[in-house]
Write a structure and sequence with these properties.
Elements (H helix, E strand, L loop, with lengths): L2 E4 L2 H25 L5 E6 L4 E11 L2 E6 L4 H7 L1 E4 L5 E7 L4 H6 L11 H7 L4 E6 L5 E12 L2 E8 L2 E6 L3 E6 L2 H14 L8 E7 L4 E11 L4 E8 L4 E13 L5 E9 L46 H16 L9 E5 L32 E6 L2 E6 L3 E3 L3 E20 L12 E7 L9 E7 L2 E8 L7 E8 L3 E20 L2 E18 L7 E7 L5 E2 L7 E3 L2 E7 L3 E18 L3 H11 L6 H48 L6 H44 L6
Parallel strand pairs: 2-16, 14-23, 21-28
Antiparallel strand pairs: 1-11, 2-3, 3-13, 4-12, 5-13, 6-12, 6-17, 7-8, 7-11, 8-9, 9-10, 14-15, 15-21, 16-19, 16-20, 18-19, 21-22, 22-25, 23-24, 26-27, 27-32, 28-31, 29-32, 30-31
């Protein structure tokens, strides 16, 4: 066969490049639409895969399916073929994948990197061609000698027998290649330039063990976009109820229409990955030379060690001929045109069901208790699956909304204060809905549009909600209400645990009271407001109001909102053990609490009372010392003032009377200070003695529980 190109060839190459993808795309669509086994069931997941089931009747022993190249690895790892008539699949084959470098290496060197007609003519030197000329309407045959420039214009030299002719390149109308390898190589280069393998479908052939009629069920997984949930919440005017509508956005990028398929949506994400089984795995082998025993070199004599031995030209030529002859006898390369997995997917069990996507569409059990919405839900293998009621049609390369739920649920319109949200939410509450998922199955998280009183009032989003669980859905900010808050902290003893060596171990209760000051200037707002309080580990609410909720690591405490100012206090408590010194304030408080308890140990209580009496005595002495030190400090400051006044008066006679008065006052203060110093010394000695006595008393007190 002679392949023919018309000049200008470059322009025609561009036209062909534009037409080939369009034609191939049509062929792809056509191949998909005429599949003998249409898609019957689709299960979409949240991890980027879809599970597909095809089913139908087949006459013969061969099933051919068109698949995209990016689907091949998924099919090789998951394709399952079941013949419900008792037969079995014997093999599944498809073209092998070669890298771009491998495909190019197999082509003639003349066509690997060439471009227009000028480059082709130069690359095809030595090729046999026929040229049809424009002007003369004649043709000339021969072998291309080369391309040269004459008067600035390219000419091709063509040899025919003993005659060589120069032909102006722009005068060539047609070029025919008479060398078959160059024709094939040029086509392959053009296919590779178009990146044909990325869009051309691959034919997958399933061979059955027998001919005749078969009832086949084929399942596999393939990469697909995740399905996306979206909800509408319509509030009831009378309150207490809301209409919840749930929808799922489905994107069909499979390459074919889904006509009346059974559609399921899984909320889980089973482990899935791409494992490359299509690309050949070549193992690098060690390259060895020809194992030949060469002639022995002569033994080196004294005086010529290290001298080079020159090989004669005749022996060198003979060695090269032997090497070429050895290469020509090398084994011919194996044909890697196709790979066939014998016995792949050979499942011959009659009526077997298919796993992966859940129940087989051929024997699916009906779920009891039909729901009001557009889907039913069930748990499968740790996942939750929505089964859309009725057949679904989704054209290729399109998106479709399918109904998941349409049901009345418990819902309350209220206010929600969440200072943790930051920004304006730290000063104003949200308008929100508290609703309970009583649909009977799990709700996958997604965006929610809230409608009330015949209009749009806001949007929100929630995370996954299990069946029977509650959640709060904020949908707008209520700026007509302002909230400020502050916290008060305290601690009180609960009971004495142990006393050892003057150290007191006790159980105490930490208290945190959060005060919310709410100022409402808004009209037509709900009366109930929920205040969010962060929950710390080990803490509990004191006197939690009715309808308090615990969600997502926080308390939601209800309160009634009044017009004007409202103050709400919420206290949480935490009991824990502490060890303190017996003479600390907390230590003294817990000891007094123990002594006042009627169930206290009498001996320990008596010892603690003696300690308390001695401590009271010590406290009085310490108070007296503190009073005398205070008086002493006051007098010393007075003395400094008097001395300054005396120095200011100087020796003037007119000031002598006043100076004598200040001097007398100075002397009296000195005598008082001296008396105070003596008293302080005695009291300090008394304090030291009482402290030692207290230590002895406390060392005699021992309590353990």
């Amino acid at each position: 066969m002679v392949r023919q190109w018309s000049a200008p060839i470059v322009k025609r190459f561009l036209i062909v490049s534009l037409l080939i993808p369009a034609c191939a795309h049509q062929a792809l669509d056509g191949a998909d639409t005429v599949s003998p086994l249409p898609v019957k069931r689709v299960v979409l997941y949240q991890n980027g895969v879809g599970y597909f089931e095809r089913g139908g009747d087949l006459v013969g022993d061969t099933l051919r399916l068109q698949v995209r190249p990016e689907q091949i690895n998924d099919l090789l790892t998951s394709l399952t073929v079941i013949d419900l008539e008792g037969g079995r699949s014997q093999s599944i084959s498809l073209p092998i994948e070669k890298s771009a470098a491998q495909r190019l290496d197999e082509l003639p060197d003349q066509v690997r990197r060439q471009g227009g007609i000028h480059s082709l003519l130069a690359a095809f030197r030595g090729a046999r061609v026929r040229l049809e000329l424009r002007d003369e309407g004649t043709s000339i045959q021969g072998r291309i000698v080369g391309v040269e420039s004459i008067d600035g214009k390219p000419h091709v030299a063509l040899a025919s027998g003993a005659r060589v002719s120069n032909v102006l390149v722009e005068n060539i109308a047609h070029l025919e290649l008479h060398d078959r390898p160059l024709q094939v190589g040029l086509n392959k280069v053009l296919d590779h330039s178009l990146n044909e393998g990325q869009w051309k479908p691959v034919e997958l052939t399933v061979r059955l063990n027998t001919g005749g009629k078969h009832k086949l069920l084929v399942s596999y997984i393939s990469g697909m976009p995740t399905w996306k949930p979206a909800y509408r919440l319509v509030m009831n005017k009378t309150g207490g109820k809301a209409l919840l509508q749930g929808w799922a956005v489905i994107d069909n990028t499979s390459g074919e229409d889904w006509n009346n398929v059974s559609l399921s949506l899984s909320s889980g994400a089973p482990i899935s990955f791409i494992y490359d089984l299509h690309k050949p795995n070549f193992v690098r082998r060690q390259q060895m030379g020809v194992m030949a025993s060469g002639a022995l070199a002569p033994v080196a004599q004294a005086g010529v060690a290290g001298a080079k031995i020159k090989e004669s030209k005749r022996s060198l030529k003979a060695r090269k001929r032997r090497a070429r002859k050895g290469r020509s006898k090398a084994a011919a390369p194996m044909n890697f045109g196709a790979v066939e997995a014998a016995g792949f997917g050979g499942l011959g069990t009659r009526g077997a069901s298919i796993g992966g996507g859940g129940m087989s569409s051929l024997d699916m059990a009906q779920i009891a208790g039909a729901q009001d919405g557009g889907a039913t839900g069930t748990a499968v293998g740790g996942l939750f699956r929505y089964d859309v009621e009725g057949p679904v049609t989704v054209p290729d390369r399109s998106s479709t909304l399918v109904s998941l739920v349409n049901r009345q649920i418990e819902g309350e319109d209220l206010l929600l204060y969440r200072p943790d949200a930051g920004g304006a939410a730290a000063q104003h509450p949200y308008r929100a809905v508290r609703f309970k998922n009583d649909t009977g199955y799990m709700l996958q998280g997604g965006p929610v549009t809230v409608l009330a009183r015949g209009t749009f009032v806001g949007s929100g989003i929630f995370e996954r909600i299990e069946d029977g669980a509650e959640t709060f859905l904020p949908f707008s900010l209520e700026q007509g209400i302002s909230i400020t808050s502050h916290a008060k902290h305290g601690e009180k003893p609960l009971k004495l645990v142990a006393v050892t060596d003057g150290r007191v171990r006790c159980e105490v209760q930490s208290r945190r009271t959060q005060v919310f000051d709410i100022l409402s200037r808004a009209k037509d707002v709900p009366e109930r407001i929920y205040l969010r309080v962060g929950k710390r580990p080990g803490w509990s609410l004191e006197n939690a109001p009715k309808d308090t909720r615990e969600l997502h690591g926080a308390w939601y405490v209800p309160a009634t909102l009044k017009e004007g100012k409202t103050t709400v206090e919420i206290t949480d408590l935490h009991s824990h053990a502490r060890t303190v010194s017996w003479d600390s304030q907390l230590g003294q408080d817990v000891l007094k609490l123990y002594v006042s308890n009627a169930e206290a140990d009498s001996e320990v209580a008596a010892a603690l009372k003696a300690v308390d009496s001695k401590r009271s005595e010590l406290s009085k002495v310490r108070a007296e010392v503190a009073q005398k030190r205070k008086r002493k400090n006051e007098l010393e400051r007075e003395q400094n003032r008097v001395r300054h006044n005396i120095k200011t008066l100087g020796e003037a006679k007119i000031n002598q009377s006043l100076a004598r008065k200040f001097s007398a006052q100075l002397g009296a203060n000195e005598r008082t200070i001296a008396g105070l110093n003596g008293d302080i010394v005695k009291l300090d000695e008394q304090i030291h003695a009482l402290t030692q006595q207290l230590k002895v008393l406390m060392q005699g007190v021992s309590l353990s529980k």
